[in-house]
Records
---
Amino acid sequence: MRPFTYERATSAQDAAAKAAAMPGARFIAGGTNLLDLMKLEIETPGHLIDVNGLGMDQIVETPEGGLRIGALVRNTDLAADRRVRKDYGVLTRALVAGASGQLRNKATTAGNLLQRTRCPYFYDVNMPCNKRKPGSGCGAIGGFSRQLGVIGTSEACIATHPSDMAVAMRVLDASVETMRPDGTTRAIPIAEFHKLPGQTPQTETALEKGELIISVALPKPTGGTHIYRKVRDRASYAFALVSVAAVIGRDGKGAVALGGVAPKPWRVEEADALLSKGAQAVSDRLFADATPREDNAFKIMLAKRTIASVIAEAKG
Amino acid sequence: MKFDTPAGMNPIDRLTVVGKPTPRIDGPLKVSGGAPYAYEHHDVPGKPAYGYVLGAAVAKGTIRSIDTARAQRAPGVLAVVTHRNAGKLGKGKMNTAKLLAGPDVQHYHQAVAVVVAETFEQARCAAGMIDIDYARSDGAFDLVAAKAGAKEQGGSDAPTAVGDFEGAFASSPVQLDQNYTTPDQSHAMMEPMATIAAWDGDKLTVWTSNQMVNWGLKDLAATLQVPIENVRLISPYIGGGFGGKLFLRSDALMASLGARAAKRPVKVALQRPLMANNATHRPSTIQRIRLGCGKDGKIAAIGHESWSGDLEGGGLEVAVQQTKLLYAGANRMTAMRLAVLDLPEANAMRAPGEAPGLMALEIAMDEMAEKLGMDPVAFRVLNDTQVDPEKPERPFSQRNLVRCLQDGAERFGWSRRKAPGQVRDGRWLVGMGVAAAFRNNLNMKSGARVRLNGQGTVTVETDMTDIGTGTYTIMAQTAAEMLGVPLAKVVVKLGDSSFPVSAGSGGQWGANSSTAGLYAACVKLREAIVEKLGFGPGEALFEGGQVHVGNRSADIARAAKSGEIVAEDSIEFGDLGKKFQQSTFGAHFVEAAVDRYTGEARVRRMLAVCAAGRILNPTSARSQVIGAMTMGVGGALMEELAVDKRFGFFVNHDLAGYEVPVHADIPHQEVIFIDEADDKVSPMKAKGVGELGLCGVGAAVANAIYNATGVRVRDYPITLDKYLDRLGEVA
């Protein structure tokens, strides 16, 4: 870990403006990912702006009948919220499938969206990694890639996004609300929030320099059966090999988003339309352009079978 | 004391303290923070500085240049030690690779430097400022590729042959010829390698975490090239070792070098990401098993071959060890071959040999039972042997494998087991599996000193270690039994090289050997007490804090009224181990379920029945076995050091990447000990149990998954990617 300076922001705009002005500044909230990365010198920010004191820790109902989740709402609190449990069960289930109780107590809603890949080559500074050190190559391609992505990847990077929460938010059509350094705000649809790697895997989100997430909005509840199935080698405390977030109505129509397979929560709206045709059809569409590696090709079959399980469960 | 004839009756046989379920006497210290682990000692002369070890960035090559100038100027830095300024170093007898690299690098994350600073954070930061230019060279990192060049070894690792294996196998009506693989595994103990080192002139004291105090002492002195009498090694509490801490490792060396350079005590704990590649590991194996049976199910031919790899000068994984002894059969062969690999150093991990060997053999036995149309329990029972099958003139000292299997089958409800793929519970496919457990019993010379003071307190001193196994408690039980005092009157001091040399903790020899050594010391102390009281001759009874000889009695404390009485002795084992094969036995039963959609495998129930001689403390023995069963589930379902065959290292080098079971993976576990006392092994009549509990678990899980699904996997760990395409269609 390199030495860094630290300050507490006084307002969201103050935080955003300072982050824009200071080269190498990063926000810190729960710190459950950033501090690990700093200890390993994968991230070496020169300045940390602590946003923990900015409030933004409430869940409120929106005029449209949805929920607005403050950026600093802890994962534990979000999962336990009565309204979330009642109307957005897939989100609660995804949250409690992630990390551990201790981590969820610290981790925030915004931080969860911004957590970085657990690719082992990203984590070992002796190895090439285009995400960590642009232009150095991808160690994972041709290496140990069992956990890594099969779709949406590029020749520069095959990392996956590790979040469970984000997969549920993707199926719920959440939007990420931000404040820019000039004080203006905008809402970014979750579908556009995470970027595919292309030739610039170091750019992971649509956020501009200094832009701070202030909340995440969920649209009005749609009803249906909410399922989050996370498949992993051990029963708990492991990242997904494949996960499926699904909201499926009585008529068999609905939406699915997948985790563990791509650099972002993976959803293809055309695939949702095939839900009543069964898992094979949905999976074929979701993975139409897949580029699996030898170690992770199983994920495509696993995804199909997990979708089949979810469809069967939704039928009850 | 020489132990060379079977033990008769002795004071231990009263079993008033020994053999009784006893909570660990060090428990209150552990739960209240009063048991200092290596990194936590406060009785160090002076405030320790912090050392941070930098690991090599390449697997094989040479350090062309190393620039520490920037690191040395960094805030708080007191010293930077590399091969260039470490002074002349030797190499420990038990180490294959050097613990400090340079100029050559022998494996990934081999230590190349230690940075010593006022704070941990300063040392860590400065370590990142060391610039090293490596010349990377090609290495061999793939066991499959290196297999053809693997070579047979000599001595006890040499091939064995009895009868005409090839002929008998070829003419057997029922044959099995299969290959199995087990992966590289990491000890992944909770407490990483850690040491505080302090020099006083040319005298060195290290507070460390080491299972074998005397081995560590000798190798530290040899590596530093200082006289052994100038070194003291203290290791009273150990947060898990599993064989990873049998030897001197880089933490102790780098702390010692750092302390010498900084002229300050220095503490070093290996950071978790270094543990997989800097420390030792259990090497992967490729195993071939051939079984030839008559239609009656009797084994006529049994052959087991194994290939493993290690650095030049290293050793084999002795995966065929159990196959020499476990089942009958007139025609037999075993062979092991060693390939040279440039991966990190391979070495012992809990039940070396039997753990991976049984993972293969006990699947093969399940497969053969099916070919024969026999129940897997009945097939094993049929092929039991009461003598060493390679040397039939050698009986087993005691062998209750059949009882373990049969009692276990009854207890587990084995008769309810159905044909493969027949039992459904919702989306789960459910099955049962069994495997035999086998681990040789080893004995090691072990010494102890025991003191009696005027308050009647008995103090035990030995360099024996407690690696979480419960040694403190069984030592106290032994002394209490021998001297007829309550447990509360016994103080046990362990893990200090200034105490008598013990067996140490490894190879499941610790409990029996170290308590037998203490038994010997207690026999001497009893004689001294009786003499001091002027009671002799005659048979002495030590009971209730009193000593009785004939009709004379006295408080034991009275003997030490005029001064402490001290006795020291050791136990040495004669040739009973040659005349009698000494082994421990068990049977593992597992119920597992596999999600028919996703292939996720989860264990539902486990039972182990163990026959391991006298159980000194059923409470801690049970803990050992359930811990081992947990480790076995890890080995079966998830543990694997993933090898990058290009860069030559274990990629998943932290506890997020190297998965071991979490609580949610471990269901109800039951352990039954067969009531035994083996008079051929020691006066304690006890054997080891800590490794037995692991042996066979992996295969029992594998066999349960097969029974659940009808899908056989022969490559560990049994992860869903290896069989998903063989589960039935679901969509």
---
Amino acid sequence: GNWARLAAQQALTQDQLLEFDTFGNVSLIHITDIHAQLKPIYFREPSVNIGVGGNKGAVPHVTGAEFRKLYGIEDGSPSHYALSSGDFSSLAQGYGRVGGLDRVATVIKAIRADRPDAILLDGGDTWHGSYTCLKTQGQDMVNVMNALQPDAMTFHWEFTLGSDRVQELVESLPFAALGQNIFDVEWDEPTELFPPYKMFERGGTKIAVIGQAFPYMPIANPGWMFPEYAFGIRDENMQAMVHEVRAAGAECVVVLSHNGFDVDKKMATVVGGIDVILSGHTHDALPEPVVSGETLIFPSGSNGKFVTRIDLDIRDGRMKGYRSKLIPIFSDVITPDADMAALIDEQRAPYVSELSEVIGQTDSLLYRRGNFNGTWDDLICDALLSERDAEIALSPGVRWGPSLIPGQDITREDIFNVTSMTYGKAYRTEMTGEFLKVVLEDVADNIFNPDPYYQQGGDMVRTGGLGYHIDVSQPQGSRISNMTLLSTGEAIDPARNYVVAGWASVNEDTEGPQIWDVVESHIAKMGTVTANPDNNSVVVTGV
Amino acid sequence: SGAVALSSLTALPAFASLTDDAIAELTGGAELGEGAITLTAPEIAENGNTVPIEVSAPGAVSITLFASGNPVPNVATFNFGPLSGSRNASTRIRLATTQDVVAIAKMEDGSFQQATANVKVTIGGCGG
Amino acid sequence: MASGVKPRVKVPKTAAAGETITIKTLISHKMESGQRKDDDGNVIPRSIINRFTADFNGQNVIDVTLEPAISTNPYFQFEAIVPETGEFKFTWYDDDGDVYETSKKIEVS
Ligand SMILES: [Mn+2]
Ligand SMILES: [Mn+2]
């Protein structure tokens, strides 16, 4: 498109990105859902992100041109490229990659130069999502994050390393590992490993940071990997913690949350006394906070693409005002921090040859985000159908995974960036048409239930070889219809068995090759990937 | 209309009527009040095999739990003794599917109180 | 089911006279529901803990009737009044006739 040239004309500088009129007496720095992306990547934001119930049409469920209109963002501008979908491939040519923790380090150092005692908070999903993170069981990310000197962290995908490894890594952390909702499953008591909150004395005041881990860990991820722990939202305990920290003199209460945006928004109306929620998990990035009740909610994106700086004026027992900025990490604009760049390369050094091996090329944009499908997931489904000789493929609706733009090589690292996990086996099994419907209905209700407390924050399971209609406004059991086997055009027969291949099963006894090997083999055979940009196998109504 | 018409994960009506029968047996068909009993259950079960349930009914002599979507609805009865410190108890129960959990308290005056909580049991497996 | 059944309880060591305390109990037990089938398709017979009682100095605190819908390793939490120094006695009754007991002393100051 025609926006690429516009983009190139708008020279962006590091000073502009960092520009901030220091305010109040306390600064917070929030980064979340890095998914182990140490290096700059491309990341296309979703064009389909449907809100339901009270959140219909509310941010972050506004995308593309509508999103830009809502925030007064000019077409082709840096903010357009960073925050919204639309002409992504062409803007990516002009603006380049985003993220990279060496650039993030530069930004954090600059904020600390301004406010030396700024509180750096990591919202979790940090120790998951790359080849090196999988091979080192999170050690690469721990080493790199420690160098950024965070003050606290909370958790989600970290637990898929297994509870023994989580305990080992958490015990090694030089900062607080928080989770008011992480409980010992046996006696239903708080754990020693994950305290509920930490108090900070900064700028002549006391700030409490309460951690909120992902509430639905054992459902969305394999609970058998961390059977010692229970989670949940635990509103009542959150309220008790807010009272406890207020009684201990906190003049400002911050929740470092991995609830997901709509859950945070509801929690802010249920639990009183929270000033700020730093929001993660659903990977939304908004240029300004959303106010829910008395609480400011700041969602800071994913994959190392953004850092949020929030300056607070805290006086006389309360928060009097704020100033904030969602800083996009344009990797060609922000100078990498040399020490951090060296540390990152040190983590990657043992694996460089495997990482950089070129498996194929893409002449199309490969992306993941979207409620129903994305071209990366279409490719993964095709790989499952072909390599596992299946009629139907199922691929989890996760929101992590960088994009590739047309003309790029597909390296092994790129494949791991969208598939790596500790339960990646690609199963092949038979399911009846009836059971397939139950699966689709079940997942759909975890995404489109009008009550945010029933939403687990992912996207719809991706289907290959199977088309269907979904009315998102209906209740569970009535959303899915017109299920069709795409290879024949026939309606799915509830009584017939279908050969289904999929991956990321939460069942302990799953068998099959690893998904990254399945995808690599498929891409190697294709050579050059050409994606269909208009997958219309899911027909959506009730929006 | 849909290519596939199915009952979903919701409880079969037969099970629900079993629960009605079991409640009638307990109460002798007496009227069921509300408001003096609290039943606390998670919105979504983290594990359907062990769902934490808490009941509380000040002034109760006993509280009985039913799982309306299980093949057998009866779950447990808590009888409070003279040294019970409150009419409050917690346990963990098995839920076969998404369903209503029902708690019936028998009060000191012989009347009955009822509370219901829906617990979702999901296959799960996705995430952000 | 007599093997490997282990009761555990959490009771405060001290209390004030007349204080209400929280007690938690667990017992390791598979709670075979009688609904499951083995690999040959035969129903696995029911074998559960069917009753649990807690008493203090011979007076009852709580008496629970359990059905197969109670989870593996039955867990209970409840509150007790402690009028004087003495001993809690916890008893679990197994379908197979076995009875498991444990007790805890509490000092009233
Ligand atoms: Mn995430
Ligand atoms: Mn997450």
---
Amino acid sequence: MRLSAANLACVRGGRDVFTGISFSVASGETLAITGRNGVGKSSLLRIVAGLIRITAGEIALEGGDPELTIAEQAHYLGHQDALKPALSVGENLRFWTGFLGGKATEITAALEAAGLHALADLPAGYLSAGQRRRLSIARLLAVRRPIWLLDEPMSTLDAAAQERLTGLMHTHLAQGGLILSATHGTLGIGAAQELRLGEAA
Amino acid sequence: MSALAALLVRDIRIGVRVGGGALMGVLFFLVVVTLVPFAVGPDLALLKRIGPAILWLAALLASLLALDRLFAADHEDGSLDLLLMSRAPLELVVAAKGLAHWLTTGLPLIVAAPLIGLLLNLDPPAEAALVLTFLAGTPALTFIGLIGAAISVALRRGGLLLAVLVLPLTVPVLIFGVAAANAAISGPMPFGTPFTILCALTLASLVIGPFAAAAALRQEME
Amino acid sequence: MALTDLANPSRFLSFANRAIPWLGGFTVIVLAFGLNQAMSAPNDYQQGDTVKIMYLHVPSAWLSMLAWAVMSVAALGTLVWRHPLADVAAKAAAPIGAAFALLCLITGSLWGRPEWGTYWVWDARLTSELVLFLLYLGVIALWRTVEDPARAARAAAILTLVGAIDLPIIKFSVVWWNTLHQGSSFGLTGSTIYPTMLIPLLIMAVAFTLLFATLHLAAMRNEILRRRVRTQRLMQASTAN
């Protein structure tokens, strides 16, 4: 599987955010998108997720399911956690698993991998920011999708949780997945390609 | 279609949980109906005559309540992004949310309407006719409201804008809902004529609402 | 045991656990006696048997107002002394008060049907009781909407006190608006009701007050336990990794 983009441009509110972006990521590879604030890291991820229309250029996926769009084969982990505080931890994950077409049998394992198994019956509103983030990540584990689009995935996570997420990302890559991640710091993934936005290419 | 079932269950759950708006609609409905006699006077004959109109107006306002949060809440917590990326068609996703909203705010209104009708001195046949028109007409209010909810999704103060956008669109539903209820109570028009038109309006809005709302959401996200 | 000891939630819980069975038993006895007295009281020469509804209707009306008074005192406790038990007392009283108001409205409309020929008239008494019921529902909705009990308590306390000031105003305005309901049969200068009916009515009023006290105590206990559960779950979330 290979996800590639050629000459992508993004115009937001009449302003050129970026132009002429190209990249190519294959199964088992990670693309780290870096650059200072406002340079369009999040916009690039949202373009791949189909949440922003492409102004110019194109994105193609080879070796995926031809029946589905790229967005339908991707997980998007944005800045917000997409959780409902009134629902319990388990209910939140069960909903997303059901909605995204995953198997209910994966839920327990996903909660365990995120370290939230003991809190399954608590309302999500009681969780700390880091715990909410981990619950959001558990969604990626409960439903298999080959493409992970991660926007600053390490933010709000403590050192232990960051390490755990790095491990999960390694597992995903080993299973043939690919990752696009916007990041300020390091992802801790050994061989990551880097796409530096905002510098004259 | 288990994705839509999951969404339906989630939205209903949120509606009936602490902080959810499910019973707030009924309370609002009751308060609005209670206020009318203070304004027009306690004359029971008059109230009986305008009763169906009062109840319909109150139901219209109550079913718009909390509608502004329908997509806005999902937008704020990031859920809407994931709903937009769904494998299920967005139109059906929107319709599932509309159905959940109707089940948690519209249906309680219909259950409460006969009791509240007692306050306006409606007799049993009038109550039955009113419940029937509510059952046929309130889904139209919700599904027309979906369009406004989708258009105002990313706006602060979306609630007021929503009312301004949606209320004029609900005029036909109000006309034929009240006409059908009045026809059943006092004639001379047969009940069937306005009631059939009311059903037609609802069926049309069940189709148009989700399509327009989905289109608005897609535009909004650009 | 001094009254101040009860201000401690744990002491209050053990007091409530001991008091509720006794209070409940006493309530049952007085209620049974009151109902018996009411049933054997003479019928009204105009209304016949339907006058018996009075023995439920009038005490419900009184208790619905008493519950608001209890909530108002508790609201002062919340706002002035910031006492957590005052929050609990206010929250626990609201649904009970609403239930008495609803009972009053239902018995009133059942009484009104044979007397006035309709279940409901927009008369001063009925209408102000309906407004009271709506205010109760508003307070309950407020408690249900705000998740943090301490914040909900302050907001509900302000609403309760405003309601306490506003209720007489609503009541008078409604009276001037229109009236069909009979005037009050009681006054400081004496009553116009026969002792054969008055005594069962007063017994029923005592029974309803006891019922309120029992239910209120039980509801307060439940609310304290519910808050402990909430605190423990919050702690569970914050200690987990």
